[in-house]
Amino acid sequence: MEKLTASLVKLVAGKRSRRLSATRIVAAAFLGIILLGATLLTLPVSSRDGISCGFFSALFTATSATCVTGLVLFDTFTQWSGFGQGVIICLIQIGGLGFMSVATLVIFMMRRKLGLKQRLVMAQALSVNDMGDVVRLQKWVLVGSLTVEALGALILTVHFLPEFGWATALKWAVFHSISAFCNAGFDIFGSLSPGGSLAPFQSDPVVLLTLSALIVTGGLGFLVWQELAQVFRGRKLSVYAKLVLLMTGALLLLGTVGVALAEWDNQATLGGMSTGDKLLNSFFQSATARTAGFAALDQACLTDTGKAVTMVLMIIGGSSGSTAGGIKTVTMLVLLLFFWSRARGRRNVCVFRRTIPPQQVMDAMTIAGMMVGSAVFGGIFISATSPVGFTDGLFESISALATVGLTAGATTKLSVAAQMLMIVYMYFGRVGILTISLGFLMGDKVQERYEYARTDLLIG
Per residue, what are the HEC states of 138-178? Predict the structure, then answer.
């Protein structure tokens, strides 16, 4: 009888655990938001011409917006009405900050207490492992995010106002501030240059630098914000925060230099610009490739070297717990440190006089391996099913997986099968990698009950 009771308890507990799995709740919520957004975008009122675009096109756009990617089948301004653009920016905001941020905001307004289940889901959505601080961190995320977006919108409004008037200036400022901070890359500058993204502002340092600042801030991660704020109170940065800032700075610098060297004399991109504009646009390309997706340069006209530099930046992405995608900055740095340690014959991976646990090194290798393998498969699949070369197909595949949104002109040429793969990749890049990473963070490891005898192999 006792054994039977114990078995029933385990069975019920197992079902309850599965039912309350925070990672599954996050994944299901994102899917629900995408489907709701697709339904709204299918409505005739969402299209500028009053004719429904069809569910599949709406689904592609809703997935791209919710997963803060930026890949589009149509120019956002030309295709979507004011209502449709409103739906898109709401999806971007929810997808960027996380659906729990919005839910928590409502709870705070109603002054209700959060239960254990809600705290667990919030911890998962914010990539933290301490549920005791999750409410305080959530408040910090909401206030900090809205403040940064408002500041960006204010700067852009003042800048656009003299030339475009109050209505257009305010609309453009709010939309692009949210899109940049959430690393989405959607734009509504189609009235200036349909499909040209930020090309009309190649010589405008206020627009490019403001959007770059929003992109970088959104890509740092909520935990790093918190630590930077505490520096003024005399607290030291953690090893993680130091690595994020170090890697972010290095990528911005190296990316700028790499793009400048690759495109300096390319008349289709930087070649016809002044030296100042060349450096400005090289920096912006380095910043936007880190999962933002705005394009001041025509990505289809980049040299092969320029595309390669951009793809490397895209697949690395931003930092954990941020609005950015990719394999993440610290994940990449851990891999580099691992390779450096092994090349010198050392077993341990160390940084700032701290040792990184071997399990976290394996986690980093797992995520990187999945991303790279999926990207290569996507490039092959796209080039095989669409009139697109492998390089541009790989560019598109990485852009979707890393939730970037840059395209070398391949998106509108994709076959239906390739477009479906891009939908899956955008969802996986935002939700799949998120839940896998959170599984690592929460320490939910599979317990192996047995182990086979070991064998030695020749490696290398």
Answer: HHHHHHHHHHHHHHHHHHHHHHHHHHHHHHHHHHHHHHHHH
In a domain, 451, yes or no: no
**Within a domain: 46:** yes
The helix (run of H) or strand (run of E) holding residue 408 is none
Q: Reduced to 3 states, what is the DSSP secondary structure of residue 407?
A: coil
Angle at CA of residue 317, ends 312 and 320, nearest 5°: 145
Neighbours of 113 (CB within 10 A): 7
Give, for 354, the enclosing helix (H) or strand (E). Answer: strand 354-356
Burial of 4 (0-12, 13-18, 19+ CB in 10 A): exposed
Beta bridge partners of 80: 47
Residue span of the structural domain in which 190 resides: 21-441
Spacing of C-alpha 200 from chain mean position = 25
Split into its structural domains, the chain has a count of 1
- Could you tell me if residue 170 is left (phi over 0), alpha (psi between -120 and 50 degrees) or otherwise beta? alpha
Task: Please report whether residue 455 resides in a domain.
Answer: no
Task: Please choose, from the candidates 107, 46, 69, 35, the residue with its C-alpha nearest in 3D space to the C-alpha of residue 291.
Answer: 69
* Per-residue tokens: 267: 């008349």
What whole-number distance in Å separates Cα of residue 286 and Cα of residue 293? 11
Beta bridge partners of 110: none
* pLDDT tens per residue across all 460 residues of the chain: 334 334 433 433 344 444 445 567 777 888 899 999 999 999 999 999 999 999 999 999 999 999 989 899 989 999 999 999 999 999 999 888 765 554 454 445 444 555 545 555 555 555 555 555 566 666 777 788 889 999 999 999 999 999 999 999 999 999 999 999 998 989 999 888 888 889 999 999 999 999 999 999 988 877 788 788 777 777 888 888 888 899 999 999 999 999 999 999 999 999 999 999 999 999 999 999 988 889 999 999 999 999 999 999 999 988 877 778 888 888 899 999 999 888 888 888 888 888 888 888 888 888 889 899 999 999 999 999 999 999 999 999 999 999 999 999 899 899 999 999 999 999 988 877 666 655 555 554 455 566 777 766 665 5
- Residue 324 counted as domain residue: yes
Q: What is the DSSP letter of 114?
A: P
Tokens of 200: 């009309």
